[in-house]
Give the backbone structure.
Amino acid sequence: MRDAEQTRQKILGIAADEIRQSGFTATSLSIILARCNISKGALYHHFANKLELGYAVFEEIYTPMFLAMWAPAVESEDPIASLCHFFENMSKEMSCDEIVCGCPLNNLCQEMSGVDEGFRLRILNMQQQLNHLIAFNLQRISNELRAGLDFNQVAYFIVSCFHGSSSLSKSAKNKELFDKVIRELCSYIQALRK
Amino acid sequence: MRDAEQTRQKILGIAADEIRQSGFTATSLSIILARCNISKGALYHHFANKLELGYAVFEEIYTPMFLAMWAPAVESEDPIASLCHFFENMSKEMSCDEIVCGCPLNNLCQEMSGVDEGFRLRILNMQQQLNHLIAFNLQRISNELRAGLDFNQVAYFIVSCFHGSSSLSKSAKNKELFDKVIRELCSYIQALRK
DNA sequence: TTTACAACAGACTCATTGGTCGGTTAGAAT
DNA sequence: ATTCTAACCGACCAATGAGTCTGTTGTAAA
């Protein structure tokens, strides 16, 4: 057979890239087809419709990518330090374009949560997984932290700031604001310590 | 004459409402025309094209609305207290739909900053105005606050968290997460005090 | 070698979009 | 009363979107 799985993966990869850059709605199938060098028939052989393609991108590309990014940052010996390191590294390592492009999770959340229930539930699930990941690992070292912290609340707060900062950077079109907010976020995180 | 300014305002108002709910791209002129009970000719008599209509909505509706919302919260005697009150009031007073709908500034920033330069610059300008408003008024009471604060940075941080929290609420479709993040934001703000 | 079907090709449909353009009407000015 | 123009009407257009459908081709099994 002509390697079906390979073309499927090619579609997923390029679709993920297009969606990250332009959002789901603005991503046109014809562009994906052109970049993949395949026909409409091929695409619709692998995916029932555009929405199902979007779901697949979210589940098979974004979700694992996301967890792989965050997990090491909070599962380390010292989550406080490595979370800060994680954020600061982002400021340093990521290109301006990448930052301005924003976090795919946040982007899709903004665009699709209110429009499509399938997306909303998948995004919500991802948010909760991420939140649990952070909250659980803060809880784990709670003896080192200030008393009376609501770890769930703190976790949501951290993610909110991160997403908000990447939103800010879009209008500024540079890393400066991103850096600023991340710096303040790190000082907030460090202040969680006793 | 048939009151031209009145129809212009009607268009602006309804367009603002549609854009807030659906975003700029997803807002179709035909819906605006239907809700306004006017013809396409009328709309294009007042606005050169969809983009110009969008700009007008941003400048004449969103911007003043936004400044009117934030200004009293930071220009008061005690900005720390009234900022917290401002946020907490939002959680209480705003309907679930309103919160889930999100902040128009943040929504447009996410959607349009990367796509259209005209929108991007207007949004950037608004962000900077808002940031200056907050930073200036924190500076004003700097003797009451902790030493070594970068007021600009703190201001961007606050706005980021706010925008991030309204993004979070979209996938959750309820106020709970919004409340959580706002609560943490308030405790952060109060900790700015000496 | 024939068969059978998954894997793909691409022309087509249909809805919807923003935008144009020639015509109509209200009403102020002369 | 006539004229003139801003204000408005609505049929029409080209472009583009997702999705359908008929037909072709590669390839593994019999």
